[in-house]
Specification:
Order of helices and strands: HHHHHEHHHHEHEEHHEHEHEH
Distance between the termini: 45 Å
Strand order of the largest sheet: 5-4-6-7
Strand content: 5-15%
Number of helices: 15
Helix content: 40-55%
Radius of gyration: 20 Å
Structural class: alpha/beta
CATH topology of the largest domain: Rossmann fold
Number of strands: 7
Shape: globular
Largest sheet: 4 strands, parallel
Length: about 325
């Protein structure tokens, strides 16, 4: 089993890291042992960036942790919230402003995802505005139902299946033929667990094209780990061409996870350590750019979770690059 990969969880919490070889062995012998409560720190160390290649198997370990009778603080409340409100955010309805130009009868759905609608609404709005500027026909839902990924990440499969069933029923009722997602997690879940509906699943970056007006400035990308490692190998090169052909200079910044996604749902300590580590990279690069050139410099990401991490932790680190979403940079 290959152990030659860059893992942020192993870097910041080595004492609790489970190697690929150990993951496979734990799954092979799962009937011969039971996880104990103290194993929580090891089993939930992973933020599922996908770099190791065993992200799916690590989900199975989380399922076993719960099946063995162990507890996660706050899980019962999270389950009840999802069942009652259809979203992990009990007190927060969608903050995305009403959009003009969408077609309520369209068979294409633009699906923002729970995190985008509540934590990064401007990100979602700009994505929708960009698609409308490209004459893309789509509708949006007044109230989305969570794709289920947040609860799947805990290992609680029954509630996840309930979210899947609710969405499937809704999608069939609406007769959707295509779903464009704004969130990598939603994209992965819809592709893997909704394929039987025959709905085409696309990610919004597939609609990004050369800017009509010449742009300028330096851009640093925080790439979305699940898309880079799992769904869209080569996405870096594709996006680099679009933005450089639009006039920007894409700065080479070696990839590293930002700690977002699953990270800030469970092992928050691990997520924060990874986030701080990544922000140090961006601060160093931003400082170097400002010394060499006086033109504008930006930092962007095609993941709304990562955008929130960059906004929250980047401000603490006083990163000099201006944070902008990828659609805003092209409009």
């Amino acid at each position: 089993m290959n152990e030659d990969y860059s893992c942020p969880c192993r870097d910041v919490d080595p004492d609790n890291f489970i190697t690929n070889e150990e993951v496979i062995e734990l799954l092979k012998t799962k009937d011969s042992y039971k996880f104990k409560q103290k194993d929580y720190f090891r089993v939930y160390n992973c933020v599922h960036c996908g770099a190791c290649g065993t992200h799916y198997e690590r989900f199975l370990l989380k399922q076993k942790f719960l099946e063995d009778g162990n507890k996660i603080e706050g899980l019962s409340e999270q389950i009840e919230t999802l069942k009652k409100f259809g979203t992990p955010f009990k007190h927060n309805k969608s903050r995305i402003k009403p959009l003009k130009g969408t077609n309520k009868n369209s068979k294409t759905l633009l699906y923002f995802g729970c995190f985008t609608t509540v934590k990064t609404p401007k990100y979602g709005e700009n994505t929708a505005k960009y698609l409308l500027s490209k004459n893309i026909d789509f509708c949006i839902l007044d109230q989305e139902i969570c794709c289920g990924y947040p609860i799947l990440c805990t290992g609680e499969v029954n509630t996840y299946n309930l979210m899947v069933d609710r969405n499937k029923e809704l999608f069939k009722e609406k007769g959707f033929e295509k779903i464009i997602t704004v969130c990598p997690s939603c994209y992965m879940v819809f592709k893997k667990h909704y394929s039987d509906l025959g709905i085409k699943i696309e990610y919004f970056t597939e609609y990004l094209t050369l800017s009509e007006e010449k742009k300028s400035g330096d851009i640093i990308f925080q790439h979305a780990c699940p898309l880079k490692y799992i769904e869209f190998p080569g996405i870096e090169e594709k996006l680099k061409k679009i933005y450089e052909d639009s006039g920007y200079k894409v700065v080479n910044a070696p990839h590293y996870c930002c700690g977002g996604g699953v990270g800030h749902q469970l092992r928050v300590d691990v997520a924060e350590m990874i986030a701080r580590k990544r922000m140090e990279d961006f601060k160093e690069i931003g400082d170097q750019i400002s010394k060499i050139r006086e033109n504008s410099s930006f930092i962007t990401t095609y993941c709304p979770d990562a955008f929130w991490i960059l906004k929250f932790y980047g401000k603490k680190q006083k990163i000099k690059c201006q944070l902008k979403d990828p659609c805003d940079l092209l409009m």
